[in-house]
Specification:
Layout (H helix, E strand, L loop, with lengths): L3 H7 L16 E5 L2 E4 L4 E4 L2 H4 L8 H11 L13 H13 L4 E7 L2 H18 L7 E5 L8 H5 L19 E3 L16 H10 L3 E6 L3 E2 L5 E2 L2 H13 L3 E5 L23 E4 L11 E6 H8 L15 H16 L2 H16 L8 E7 L2 E6 L5 H10 L2 E2 L6 E4 L7 H16 L3
Parallel strand pairs: 3-15, 5-6, 5-7, 7-10, 10-11
Antiparallel strand pairs: 1-2, 2-3, 4-12, 8-9, 11-12, 13-14, 14-16
Helix pairs in contact: 3-10, 4-10, 5-9, 11-13
Length: 423
């Protein structure tokens, strides 16, 4: 049993205050789609541990991969050395990601993969003799991580990092897309983006965005045509395109990668979260041969090297997770989850508290008119036997792909009852 007073007084949990912390619940173990608390409570996980545990917990295939790799080595530095798990994972990523992304740089978190992507873009133009192209253009309501360069491309007003606005690098922001997924996007919606690129193309190194799904900043699904037009504008104005697929990669949106909805390839792409099926932290930044060749011209090197990059244990589990996904009927699973989320969350619109309901792939979102009390909501959902963690005005689900219809129904029912409880 843990010491709850030590946790409360000494352990800093994410996005919380040490003086007035949010409630935390002590976990004993997890299995399948359930998290078991020390008091015996079983919670159906609607979050897939921040969208990463796509196969659920303690999957025998992933457990076996971890144990087999432990018998060989848990870690070895990647500087000057290589190993089979990293090579095999790199081969899979090059094979599965959009065409042209042939170079892979491993790191140990999604935020760091974004840092690497930004560094790649900046070094590309420095090596190309255009060091003035050193700023990023991005979309409002976006989220790309909590590290320093990543914070600078999160929304400076509605994002989580406004406290740091005075010290972050100033980037270019344009209005977020509004045409919903499944619709055509008029060119006028990209007028601000086009104007900004035309006016500042000599300063802009890259456009960075979350393809199709704006995640933690908005939970909105926009038209694939918007992404297609962004790719064309980047080509027209000679800037790179960085796709942040950390949340969307490995099937979450209904495609293996969200860029596939628009049939486009970015110049640089970030993946993480579900990469290891939620077992260990691992991320990767992929780029084209053109980007790599420019940076490496005249002996140039990418100035980045995390201690735990390409960790063999994480890479071995990632290989097993990807193969497990590809061998599964994941498309049918995602389609079934999407259909059930749509039918069972749509009734939330009858509540006066609800502004919108959105569903895409294995993502279901209920947007409230007013912010939700995190502490109140957390206690309510735990009382219902589910693990759902809202933020801001958003109550959402991103469950493991293996979830049964019955367990998913318990999650959606809990949300429906929550939004109706104070209507």
């Amino acid at each position: 049993m843990i010491d709850p007073s030590f946790d409360k007084d000494h352990l800093w949990h994410p996005y919380t205050s040490m003086q007035n912390p949010l409630p935390v619940y002590a976990v004993s173990h997890a299995q399948g789609v359930r998290i078991y608390l020390e008091d015996g409570t079983a919670l159906i996980d609607g979050m897939a541990s921040w969208w990463s545990a796509i196969h659920g917990y303690r999957h025998p295939v992933l457990d076996a991969a971890a144990k087999a790799q432990l018998d060989r080595m848990s870690h070895v530095m990647f500087g000057g050395l290589t190993h089979a798990p990293a090579v095999e994972l790199g081969q899979l990523l090059v094979q599965l990601t959009p065409p042209g992304l042939d170079l892979v740089f491993f790191s140990d978190s999604g935020s760091v993969s974004v840092e690497v992507a930004i560094k790649l873009a900046l070094q590309y133009w420095i090596a190309g003799g255009q060091p003035g192209k050193n700023r990023l253009l991005t979309l409002r309501k976006g989220y790309h991580g909590d590290t320093f360069a990543a914070m600078a491309v999160c929304d400076p007003v509605t994002g989580m990092h406004h406290l740091f606005n005075d010290v972050l690098t100033k980037q270019f922001f344009v209005s977020e897309p509004h045409s919903p997924f499944g619709t055509e996007c008029p060119a006028t919606e990209l007028a601000e983006l086009r104007t900004t690129l035309a006016r500042h193309q000599q300063q802009i190194a890259a456009v960075i965005l979350e393809p199709i799904v704006q995640g933690a900043g908005r939970m909105y699904f926009y038209a694939a045509d918007y992404l297609l037009q962004v790719r064309a504008l980047c080509d027209e104005f000679n800037v790179l395109l960085i796709a942040d697929e950390i949340a969307t990669g490995f099937g979450r949106s209904g495609k293996l990668f969200a860029c596939e909805h628009a049939n486009i390839s970015p110049d640089i792409m970030c993946v993480g979260k579900a990469l290891t099926g939620g077992y260990l932290t691992l991320a990767a930044t992929l780029c084209t041969q053109q980007v790599g060749a420019m940076i490496s011209h005249n002996g140039g090197v990418l100035m980045h090297g995390p201690t735990f990059m390409a960790n063999p244990l994480a890479c071995a589990i990632a290989v097993a997770s990807i193969k497990l996904l590809l061998a599964s009927p994941w498309q049918q699973q995602i389609a079934a989850i999407e259909s059930q989320l749509y039918s069972e969350l749509t009734p939330c619109l009858l509540s006066s508290r609800v502004a919108a309901v959105r569903v895409l792939g294995a993502i279901g979102v209920v947007e409230m008119h007013e912010p939700v009390s995190m502490a109140e909501a957390q206690r309510y959902f735990v009382g219902q036997g589910v693990w759902i963690r809202p933020f801001g005005k958003l109550v959402y689900l991103m469950p493991p792909y293996i979830i049964s219809p019955e367990d998913l129904r318990q999650l959606t029912t809990a949300i429906l009852q929550f939004v109706q409880s104070a209507s």
